[in-house]
Design brief:
about 325 residues, TIM Barrel, 2 domains, DNA polymerase, domain 1, single chain, alpha/beta, two-stranded parallel ribbon, 10-stranded mixed beta sheet, elongated
Length: about 325
């Protein structure tokens, strides 16, 4: 039985046409699902009883559940159990500009980045679109507030699950549904060049973030296995082409690791690499874990790195930290359970 949250508005319209119903029924059902948040079809009294019964027989609703919720300063972390017993997690963050959610796109991850807690747990499977949609819906239900920003940056490599991630974006972006604006949605990738090329052709203005974490191949090869397939210089050229095609600014994420990629030398290399690119750099203080030996860069070195980028006209921020007491590293809550 297919999950109703796995259907885009167009797919639901096609379904109704296939059963000799008017396509506008799709908008009525979307309203019940996403505006009124009905958790069963019987509550959708804007459609006939016969149609409600048919939907109940052909489609399922919620299939994932919250197992554990941890709370910290301006952050909630959720461990979900999927229908097959697999576990994923999401992080909710309260900002002065709104409420954001960082969601997972896979059960496990095959990218095996050396610093990443999620990378220790190999990919089991891709998430379907409904399993991403339900993360958002269940968290909104828990906090009784509207989520305004979505980042696909949790467990998994989103571009390794391209089709389902794009479907998820269409569902949450639909003005008949959850209606989260394109510019409030960000997809993060470790640098899968063919998918970046595909993403450049997508409609809308969804943001792209690149997990870079090193200014050269020598360091990036040690940190990220994907760099042995798509080298730094090729990735940067693809990003330049993406910006040229889309006229969209790209974010480069850069986790600072003590003694690895955080010296003045690496900062100046990063300046040379990114000079002239319409981008900004998000410097990320590392969340140390018991399972991985990397250490967090000292505060003064983070500020020095930041100053070098800023003084060379590279737009830069230092990521505000959330959840230091709630297994903050991506995948850590799942690993601990």
């Amino acid at each position: 039985m297919q999950n109703i949250y796995d259907l885009t508005l167009n797919e639901l319209e096609e379904y109704f046409v296939s059963i000799d119903e008017k396509p506008f029924r799709a908008s009525q059902v979307y309203e019940g699902l996403y505006k009124k948040r009905f958790n069963n079809f019987e509550k959708m009294t804007n459609i006939s009883k016969e149609l409600r019964e048919k939907l109940s027989k052909e489609f399922s609703l919620y299939k994932i559940k919250i197992l554990i919720k941890q709370t910290g300063d301006n952050v909630n972390k959720y461990l979900f159990e999927l229908e097959d017993g697999s576990k994923i997690e999401s992080v909710l963050m309260f900002h002065n500009y709104g409420i954001s959610i960082c969601i997972s796109s896979q059960v496990g991850c095959n990218m095996a980045c050396a610093f990443c807690e999620s990378g220790r747990l190999k990919k089991v499977r891709n998430l379907l679109a409904y399993e991403m949609v339900e993360q958002l819906l269940l968290i909104e239900e828990d906090i009784n507030k509207r989520i305004t920003h979505v980042v696909i940056m949790g467990i998994g490599e989103p571009f390794d699950n391209y089709e389902n991630v794009m479907k998820f974006i269409k569902i949450i972006n639909s003005n008949k549904g959850i209606n989260i604006g394109s510019r409030h949605i960000t997809v993060s990738t470790c640098g899968l060049i063919p998918e970046i090329r595909r993403f450049a052709k997508e409609d809308g203005q969804v943001n792209l973030a690149i997990s870079l974490h090193a200014p050269n191949n020598e360091i990036r090869n040690k940190l990220m296995k994907i760099n042995k397939v798509y080298r730094v210089e090729d990735l940067i050229e693809e990003v330049k082409d993406y910006i040229k095609k889309t006229n969209r600014r790209v974010t480069f994420e850069y986790i600072l690791l003590e003694g690895i990629n955080d010296s003045e030398k690496e900062a100046r290399e990063l300046v040379d690499l990114l000079k002239g690119i319409n981008c900004y750099v998000n410097l990320i203080p590392y969340n140390e874990t018991d399972n991985i030996g990397f250490k967090r860069t000292k505060e003064w070195k983070i500020l020095k790195f930041y100053d070098i980028l800023k003084s060379n006209n590279i737009s830069t921020t230092i990521r505000k930290e959330f959840g230091g007491k709630v297994s903050a590293a991506c995948g850590q809550l799942r690993a601990n359970n």
